[in-house]
Amino acid sequence: VDHGKTTLLDTLRKTSVAAGEAGGITQHIGAFDVLLPSGKRITFLDTPGHAAFSAMRARGARVTDIVVLVVAADDGVMPQTIEALKYAKEAGVEIIVAVNKCDKPGATPSKVKENLIRYDLLVEDYGGEVPAVEVSGLTGLGLDKLEETIIAVSEMADIRGDATGPVEATVIESRVVKGKGNVTTMLVTRGTLQAGQVLVAGTTWCKVRTLSDDKGKTLKAAGPSVPVEISGWKDLPSAGDFALQAENENHAKDVITSRIENEKQKESMKSIEEMNKKRIKARELEEATREAAKKSTHSGDISISQETGNSAIELPVILKCDVHGSVEALMGAIAGFPKHEVNVNIIYSGVGQVTDSDVERAYAGKAQIIAFNVSIDKKVKNLAESRKVTINNYEIIYKLLDDLQEKMLDLLPKEEVLVVTGEANVLQMFELHSKSKERERIAGCRVMSGKITKNDMIRIVRNEEIIFEGKLKTFKHHKKDITEASKGLECGMEFDSFNGAEAGDRVHCYRIDKFRRAKLNYR
């Protein structure tokens, strides 16, 4: 996070994306071309650094030929650096280390290179084969060397693209755009993509309506390694789906039908497996109960723990995001929250603006809507207000996750803390006869610490055992009624429905304070 990946790319293509990013954090993959002074082009994928976007980083490593691992010279190797390195190694792609922020005071690029050895990454400076370039995204220091290194590595690895044959591409991101409908950012890996071609990805298909580059300029065709935005999808494919060219629409529909049937079969097999697991578990529990009954001589000794239904409090939510990758990242992060006390139940998730139907769905399911990087129409806001449906809109992922945890804490019962506010010793007992001829026993006390307050709870302790808990009936200093007594003051106490106090007893005055939990408990 904040190692300067986007700033580095901004300087390379002489634009400013980082300045417009919420919280300075890349929220989803950005794919774009950079034209070098040499006339050569490099396509960059800018993947997010936030921990929640691990699936995006894995996807970025899979679809690229070279991974540029950006490590800040001041922060050094971070958990996400190690994770990104793992994905790059698993993908079997070439790696270049870019040590960024080398212009900052106190930056130690050599220390970063040394630390990488611990993770089996040996850079050229230490006798390895992995190039490491010292750069500054802010000033442009070393960027020409980084470009040269990328070109050199691609030539050494003989990385080539085939512009002939059926189109093969990978879905980088998918989203709903007003006026365009379902739109995907694709990276062509083979063939040449043109308008009018038919593509199949996952369980949806598309007749390519429009092609445009990362700047919104319309393209006639896109060859290998060209990032392109295309419209014309029947439904949104998932980010990371592999797209293949179909001969025609009928061929595409046949492929989709076959894939949906396969998915249904898999789901059916999965549900059968789950049923079998439940049956085996029930049988094992039955056998365990019988065994326990045989071994036990007393019926009270049998203690078989059985799983009861989930008693967690439900927090129903509807999740709407700008792109499919954001939905994936957020659902993954929410799945990591503890579920034994409060369970965040995502009743619906989707890509695109918050709509009237989302509000109606939330109203029916008593859910709140969480929107991420999407706009909300005034008409939708008005409907939500009339239906009393809460819509929370976010631009920064960690703010969303923090707020969601706060909402979970709000649902939990408050924690109770007993606070002793004062202590008194019973010095002597006095008996009085009232006009109603009832005997009244008054405890003559001296306050030893704190303050005794009439409206607070009272506890009488004798030999470390509590013999009474309740309220004061009367509270006097001499003959005057009082509401409180501080340290050193002598007073008379009559306890409500209790006459058993004796000299030597201790009187505790206390209150119960209720606190909202500070954090969720992870088992």
Automatic annotation (TrEMBL):
It is found in: Mitochondrion. GO terms for molecular function: GTP binding; GTPase activity; translation initiation factor activity. GO terms for biological process: mitochondrial translation. One of its GO terms (cellular component) is mitochondrion. It holds the Pfam family EF-G_D2. Residues 1-164 form the Tr-type G domain. Its main location: mitochondrion. Belongs to the TRAFAC class translation factor GTPase superfamily. Classic translation factor GTPase family. IF-2 subfamily. One of the essential components for the initiation of protein synthesis. Protects formylmethionyl-tRNA from spontaneous hydrolysis and promotes its binding to the 30S ribosomal subunits. Also involved in the hydrolysis of GTP during the formation of the 70S ribosomal complex. NCBIfam families: IF-2 (TIGR00487), small_GTP (TIGR00231). This is Translation initiation factor IF-2, mitochondrial. It comes from Physocladia obscura.
